[in-house]
Automatic annotation (TrEMBL):
Entry keyword annotation includes Ion transport: no
Keywords from the named record: Membrane, Metal-binding, Signal, Transmembrane, Transmembrane helix, Transport
Presence of the UniProt keyword Chloroplast in the record: no
Full protein name: Zinc ABC transporter substrate-binding protein
Cell compartments where the protein resides: Cell envelope; Cell membrane; Membrane
Membrane-related topology note: Multi-pass membrane protein
Length: 599
């Protein structure tokens, strides 16, 4: 296989998830080209963005009623966005307000309603991942939906192309000569909504707008005729999908943003070098522009090749990968599980993590590298309890058919807001269950090393018990009434219950949620009533809210706690045992004088 084949074709030939993603994006490109072109001609470019936001409340309602049901979420999203489009159109036709203003009003109402619906549902992380990008997890149902919408859209565009074009170019003339002008207008909006609904299955709502509008705006710098514009826009969208997936694969970038970034790159080049209305045509003579265009094109090509080659392994990395291929590969969903698996498995297995140190599993965006990890694994280890809302779709996309160990099996979870709290590892008693589950699963995976794995697990448990006893002895020196603190993320309930600590949080259920004014007011009143003066940040959270609370209450930021991820190697919490030790000693230090004696 040549280098060119390895770079540009091998990923699609080898991996089914890459082929599915490409087919879905190509199907979208066929209709996004003409629809985006018509939106640009109607000066409704931002309307596409508005309708993409309007999908949110409908998809949220579908999720609340039926969970991650493709049909329910797609139907809800279609109805919500179409309702916004119809209401905006009605207001524009029967009042003096322009259509863009009415679209802005209704889409903002829909967006706010969608955010509130998501905030009211504790397990909203799954929905956020579906809405904001899952091109690597396109399954059969999603692919059929995209293909069906694209086919129907192309058929309707072919049959009704002339009236749709007349209505787009001169709506007043169309209303004068035909009574069907309104019907054609609403049909066009319905086609846009339908393709956005199909697009969020592949790229997410926001990314789908990029594939709809960027190719169309780029095409206008090269051709003038309407048919040529539609064809070129579709071609640019298809190229962006293909090149973006390759960039995502080789450089290990999130696929949806990579696709839109390529489309954005084509737009910038078109803006600079296009034949009609570009910067080259407006500002520079042809003789000067030609060398500049050649230099810019060459620099762009070099940059793209450099990005692609950046993701290729070095010879040393390839040799190390070949050496580790002899051991069974274990893939853990996040860094804390990976550390436990390494401690129990030792050199009998090769352990990697999807979400690395410092990463937030709640808002993780999968990459092609993650799918390849799963495809090559012999065992996948997940936390469960709805912690990794993206994992099921990712496993399905990878084609992995091996065992999946749910590390929390056997643990009775605490309930928060009607949903299980997934952060069970913060209680050492639960950590023992994790270790036992890993011992059994790894022993089955490598039977020849079962005795050594049992010995490592027993030694690991001894170290955990010794640390637990030492931390309890330190904590006993702090009076029970002083063991109060506020954290930036509701992830330490198990830790508080295990060690007799009173912990409240600002940010509620997940790092994806924002507190309400009532939440903050209630928290501050509680702090004043209980004279709580210690605030703690979480390593993967946004510190601004906690800093605001500290300023308003006169409290002290006591340090950083590690909730959902380890710290980078060589730092304070780069293993599970060090994480547990860091969190407890940080809390205890904040409760020592003078903080503990602050009135």
């Amino acid at each position: 296989m040549t280098l060119m084949q390895a770079l540009f074709w091998q990923p699609f030939a080898e991996f089914d998830f890459m082929r599915r993603a490409l087919v879905a994006c190509l199907a979208l490109a066929l209709t996004c080209g003409p629809l985006g072109t018509l939106l640009v001609l109607r000066r409704m470019s931002l309307v596409g963005d508005a309708m993409a936001h309007a999908l949110l409340p409908g998809a949220a309602v579908g999720y609340l009623l039926a969970g991650l049901s493709l049909g329910a979420m797609s139907a809800g999203a279609f109805v919500a966005a179409l309702l916004v489009a119809l209401l905006a159109g009605v207001v524009a036709r029967f009042t003096p307000q322009r259509e863009d203003a009415s679209f802005a009003a209704f889409y903002l109402i829909a967006l706010a309603a969608g955010v509130l619906l998501i905030a009211r549902q504790g397990g909203s992380v799954d929905l956020m991942h579906v809405l904001f990008g899952s091109v690597l997890a396109v399954d059969d149902a999603s692919l059929k939906l995209v293909a069906g919408v694209s086919s129907v859209s192309l058929l309707l565009l072919a049959v009704l192309w002339r009236p749709i074009v007349f209505e787009a170019c001169d709506g007043l003339f169309m209303r004068t000569v035909s009574r069907r002008s309104a019907a054609v207008h609403y049909l066009f909006l319905a086609l846009v909504v339908g393709n956005l609904v199909a697009g969020f299955q592949a790229l997410g709502t926001l990314m789908a707008v990029g594939l709809l509008m960027l190719p169309a705006t780029a095409a206008r710098f090269w051709v003038r005729s309407l048919e040529a514009l539609a064809l070129l826009a579709a071609g640019i969208a298809a190229f962006s999908a293909w090149a973006g997936l390759l960039l995502s694969y080789h450089a290990s970038l999130p696929s949806g943003p990579a696709i839109v970034l390529v489309a954005g790159g084509v737009y910038v080049l078109s803006l600079a070098l296009g034949r009609h209305g570009s910067l080259r045509a407006a500002w520079r003579p042809q003789a000067v522009a030609a060398p500049a265009a050649a230099w810019l094109g060459g620099a762009t090509a070099v940059g793209v090749v450099a990005l692609v080659l950046a993701g290729l392994p070095t010879p040393a990395q390839a040799q190390a990968a070949a050496a580790s291929a002899e051991r069974p590969r274990v893939v853990a969903s996040f860094s804390i599980l990976a550390d436990m698996a390494r401690e129990v498995g030792g050199d009998a297995v090769e352990v990697s993590s999807l979400v690395g140190p410092g990463g937030d599993a709640h808002v993780y965006e999968p990459t092609p590298a993650a799918v390849r990890q799963l495809a090559a694994a012999q065992l996948v280890v997940v936390n469960g309890l709805r912690f990794e809302g993206w994992i099921d779709r990712l496993v399905a996309a990878s084609g992995y058919r091996g065992p999946v160990l749910v590390a929390t099996t056997g643990i009775r979870p605490r309930m928060v807001y009607g949903a299980p709290d997934p952060h069970a590892w913060h209680d050492p008693a639960n950590a023992r269950v994790y270790i036992e589950n890993l011992r059994v699963a790894l022993g089955r995976l490598v039977p020849a090393q079962a005795a050594a794995i049992d010995a490592r697990a027993a030694h690991y448990l001894q170290r955990l018990d010794a640390q637990d006893q030492r931390l309890r002895a330190l904590l006993a020196q702090v009076p029970a009434e002083q063991r109060r603190a506020i954290t930036s993320h509701d992830a330490f309930g198990y830790l508080a219950a295990a060690y007799g600590i009173r912990l409240a949080s600002v940010q509620g259920w997940t790092t994806a949620a924002e507190p309400s004014a009532a939440d903050l007011a209630r928290l501050m009143r509680q702090m004043k009533a209980e004279q709580t003066r210690a605030l703690f940040l979480e390593n993967t959270g946004n510190p601004r809210m906690m800093q605001r609370v500290a300023q308003d209450t006169g409290a002290v930021i006591g340090g950083t706690l590690y909730a959902d991820a380890l710290s980078p190697p060589g730092t304070a919490a780069d293993s599970y045992l060090k994480l547990l030790n860091h969190n407890l000693t940080t809390l205890i230090a904040a409760w020592q004088p003078p903080v503990a004696r602050t009135p």
